[in-house]
Each structure stands twice: as structure tokens, then as C-alpha cells.
Amino acid sequence: MKLVLGIAGASGSIYPARFLKKLLELEGETYLIVSPASIRIFREEYETNVNTPQEILDFIINKWQIESIRNQIHFRTFADIGADIASGSNKWDAMVVLPCSMKTIASINAGLTENLIERCADVTLKERRRLIVVPRETPYNRIHLRNMLSLDEAGAIILPASPGFYQVPRTLDDLGDFIAGRIFNLLGVDAELFPKWDG
Ligand SMILES: Cc1cc2nc3c(=O)[nH]c(=O)nc-3n(C[C@H](O)[C@H](O)[C@H](O)COP(=O)(O)O)c2cc1C
Question: 3-class DSSP state for residue 132?
């Protein structure tokens, strides 16, 4: 699978971290776009001093001792609205924005395309490809709710960062894996990150 993964500046660095951990182990190609705000939040939440997307990836690889990396990760610069993936002629299968801030949801909804995450999301929708947006905020105001409804109407899938507890998670990583697993499900990949509910 050829995937565009945008990491925007909402709380919940554990979600892209656990998603990337699994993704690295799977065959495929990923274009990774990381917003400056998300790097700041990653630093806070993992109490580390990463400063670049490459350092975030290295942190994940070291933290979970990932040995066999099968996914090709291509870094693309947040501000580079002229990157190869900024055009619909570059064919990827799907895009995930994980997590997605209310600011980026508002921008995608308004069609602003001021950075590469927003531009790729816009392209994904116009090319009728799968766009999965994982919002994180609480509580929601009516602007947030309207923007999410409008994005759903435009064809995006809103997958809130609200893990289930019926699988009896033991660790924070289990909670991260629940959301990562639901995203993989929607991408048609059985990542086996949590046991299926069997009644
Ligand atoms: C520590 C921290 C946590 C934040 N958490 C959230 C959040 O959960 N949801 C949200 O919508 N914005 C959150 N923000 C605000 C966004 O980072 C801010 O709106 C930023 O402009 C988003 O830009 P981006 O979407 O381009 O990354 C947070 C900011 C900081 C510094």
C-alpha cells in the first residue's frame, strides 16, 4: 500500500507512534508529513527532545527495538506545497491524518491547502481516495462538530481518538494499538493489533 501519513498537532502522540511502529513492519510505501506543532507535542508527551521527523522515527525504532523495517518511509516537508505528492497525478491509495487538530480539520474543510498535510488531504478528497481523519479535542464546540460533519459529507472518514475499553487494555500502548488497529482495518489491512470481539 502507498500511504500518505500526516501527523498534525493534537494531543495523542501515542497514536502515530504505535501506528508507525506497526507500519514499519509491513510491506509498503509511506509519505510522512509532520507538522511543527506535532513535533512539539511529541516532545512533551514522550518527554524526549526530538526536533525533526527523522528523530521521531528513530525514537520509535529505538523505543520498540524494531529490527526488520519493510516499509519505505519518504519524508516530505510540511511547508513544501510543491512536493511530488501535492498533485493528484501522484497516485497513493489513502491518507491518514493522525492525530488531527481542530485547526487542520477546519483548514481541510475550508479547502485552504496552506501546508502539505492540508494540500494532500484536499487532493485525496478530490481524487475520491480514502481519507481517514483522527480528531482529538474535548469538549467539542459547534464549529468543531460542523467541520467534522462537513468533512464526512465530503467523503472523509472521521475516526475519533476514543479507544474502546472492552478489550481490557493493560497498558497505554494497548490503547494506542486499538486506534492504530481500527485505522488498519479501514485500510483493509489485518494488523492484528487487538483481538476481534467474538461475542
Ligand atoms: C501541548 C499541546 C497540546 C495540544 N493539543 C491539541 C489537541 O488535542 N487538539 C487540538 O485540536 N489542538 C491541540 N493543540 C493546538 C494545536 O497544536 C494548534 O492549533 C496548532 O496550530 C495545530 O497546527 P497543525 O494542525 O498544523 O499541526 C495543542 C497544542 C499544544 C502545544
Answer: strand
What pLDDT is stored for residue 56 in this prediction? 98
Residue nearest to atom 19 of ligand 1 (CA): 103
Architecture of the structural domain at 2-186: 3-Layer(aba) Sandwich (3.40)
pLDDT of residue 192: 83
Closest CA to 75 of 52, 48, 94: 52
| Ligand 1 contact, 41 CB (< 6 A) | yes
**What is the chain's alpha carbon radius of gyration, rounded to the nearest angstrom?**
16
Q: With a cut of 90, say whether residue 190 has pLDDT above it.
A: no
> How far, in Å, is the centroid of ligand 1 from the Cα of 176?
18
Please enumerate in sequence order all residues whose Cβ is within 8 A of that of 28, keeping only pairs 6 or more positions apart, or say none: 1, 2, 3, 70, 71, 72
Cα distances (Å, whole numbers) of residue 84 to 27, 66, 169:
22, 29, 40
pTM: 0.97
